[in-house]
Amino acid sequence: xxxxxxxxxxxxxxxxxxxxxxxxxxxxxxxxxxxxxxxxxxxxxxxxxxxxxxxxxxxxxxxxxxxxxxxxxxxxxxxxxxxxxxxxxxxxxxxxxxxxxxxxxxxxxxxxxxxxxxxxxxxxxxxxxxxxxxxxxxxxxxxxxxxxxxxxxxxxxxxxxxxxxxxxxxxxxxxxxxxxxxxxxxxxxxxxxxxxxxxxxxxxxxxxxxxxxxxxxxxxxxxxxxxxxxxxxxxxxxxxxxxxxxxxxxxxxxxxxxxxxxxxxxxxxxxxxxxxxxxxxxxxxxxxxxxxxxxxxxxxxxxxxxxxxxxxxxxxxxxxxx
Length: 322
Ligand code: AHR
What we know:
The protein is α/β, with parallel strands linked by helices. It is built from 11 helices and 12 strands. It has a 6-stranded parallel sheet, sandwiched between helices. Strands 7-6-8-9-10-12 form a 6-stranded mixed sheet, with helices on both faces. Helix 2 (43-55) packs across helix 10. The longest helix is centred in the N-terminal third of the chain and has 15 residues, at 2-16. The chain is elongated and about 65 Å long. It binds alpha-L-arabinofuranose. The site of alpha-L-arabinofuranose has 13 residues, from helix 2 and strand 9. Alpha-L-arabinofuranose binds at residues 41-42, 44-45, 118-119, 172, 200, 228, 230, 255-256, 276.
């Protein structure tokens, strides 16, 4: 809470200096929001963009949306453009964790509050943003590992695991690696034999899985842990093309819980998916209203999520909203 107050104290100083708010929509009474999205790398991201756009389509908001195409430089440019346009609130999902200090200081100097959505930043001064709404990615990695340990009950060692990481330097890749290792390392049967980034996309997931299969040669891969469903779906293609049965010869657990993952589970090709809810729009809109009204908001808002397995896919598929 102290940090929250510190942010608004600084905002007050910026406002007194004549640089707060008052952008092009000041007269309409609408809250102008500059939103910088990571890109369109996955089914998850598409659902997240839809949710944010729908929630901020309410007449009380004016949305300026920018797609960063998975490049930090594009996102920094977008944030600078929002600052120049004097938006009321900036919201963004940072592609990687580091390298935001300068632009966030510029936003603060302009008196514009920043709300982080989905992914975290690492900054020496956390008061540079007001709040972060998103999943607990460390816990998601732990959940994937716990599922694996349960699934491997009665199996003997070694269990050879390959890992498809998300975008290098991103919060979900860093945190999921950490959470997964924390749990899997408690069970000596598991060995992570290969780990490489597939950048959260299907195409890269397939390419990297092909490389894993080739590099392992005659050595059996028992398990694939993919940091998202899209990479797992790409990898499933690679496994099939190598003449193996995904979900049988190689057990697969991934993260997100998108419709494509439920279809793969229904077809018996994916064993489990850990939910990561992209439908953040309504909660983000409420946070933006509160931040704009200078109400107190929690520094961190965590989204509730579960784990789904192959035997639940049939019943759950019709209920999936993304
Ligand atoms: O930041 C959330 C992650 O980003 C999702 O797990 C992944 O699918 C997306 O690209």
